[in-house]
Amino acid sequence: MLEARDLACLRGERAVFAGLSFRLAPGDALLLVGANGAGKSTLLRLLAGLLRPAAGTVLWEGADALADRAAHAARLRYLSHQDALKPALTARENLAFFARLWGGEAAAALAALDLLPLADLPARVLSAGQKRRLALARLALAPLRQPAPLWLLDEPTVGLDAASVGRLGDLLARHRTGGGMVLAATHLPLPLPDARELRL
Amino acid sequence: MSGASLSPWLALLSRELRLALRHPADTLAAVMFFILVAALFPFGVGPAPETLARLAPGALLAAALLAALLPLDRLFGADAEDGTLDQLLLSGLAPAAVALAKAAAHWLTTGLPLLLATPVAAAMLNLPVEAWPAAMGALGLAAGVLSLLGTAGAALTLGARRGGVLLPLLVLPLAIPCVIFGAAGIEAAAAGLAARPYLLLLAALLAAALSLAPLAAGAALRTE
User: Fold this and answer.
1) In this structure, what is the dihedral angle of CA atoms B141, B145, B146, B151, given to the nearest 10 degrees?
2) Is ipTM strictly over 0.90?
3) Residue A195, Cβ neighbours under 10 Å: how many?
4) Cα B114–Cα B120–Cα B122 angle in degrees, nearest 5
5) How confident is the model at residue B49, as a pLDDT?
């Protein structure tokens, strides 16, 4: 259970948002919607523990989540706006690094996003949509050692074709039936049935 | 570092090394810079062998430290731009461990090649052959200190405008003790005296930097 209470965030001198509260139970999905600059990405970074809230608390199972940021990091996957890929490494090598960190099978994760035919190409030559798929493949690394129940996704479908959006839908559905939670910031329709909306 | 976090740490180090191998230009640029600066001295000072040999210890150290600075401003910059740094901070590794891996990779891909190129630069500066092992030892240790200080500097200047200019201004003053002890050690070896005490002092500086610099860098990455 993730709960945010009265979160506020400052960027420079300006309040991005304030008094934000919501809760997320296992299996839940929450869509963050709002205009550009409304603070969707900021909220995701804050929930990931990469930013400090100016006010308010983030609770995990009732305890302060950001008190032990390493433990909090271990229970989440964060898909940022950037794909976090190294252009000089192949698709497989990019993913294998995260597989070594978290456990899980790089080959299976590549297959889940239909990336096996591109596995040995350097990430440099992939198209924008293919890079996005490779970033999403990190979510498909399903490690037994360190499962991550909380997925924080920033515009996950930017640049994706319809088939890939479908594959992401399968991934999200499997995550949610396994008790996972999804928080996604988006301007595009996402394959997340009965997701609640949070307007920023 | 506990055993559980050693494997991710090694994964990060091996990825950094693999990236450096795919982009050998950074390493080559540092080594060529080092050799070219050493080659400029005979032109500027004049080719009198004894004058050159007199200048060699200090020139070697200064040239090597400047060369080792070259790749530092991209140490965290590229990772911060492409989103990798966020993932590293969420990887379960402590920020200080991430910084230590970066520093180790910097030493292996810049410090070690500089150490190997030392005989070439030493020959151009007419350093007596007896002093070459001491020169290599001093350069290796001094480059290690610079890798650690530089990592802290790179983490601090990350995101700052003109960080590339700020970084040498922060790091080089802190590296002065390395130049003093390193050059003194090489000079001692050239005069037929023991270089060991000076190298041990350099090793002590390295030990101090090893324990402090990653913590400072980690704290700087955290508040980014």
Assistant:
1) 140
2) yes
3) 18
4) 90
5) 86
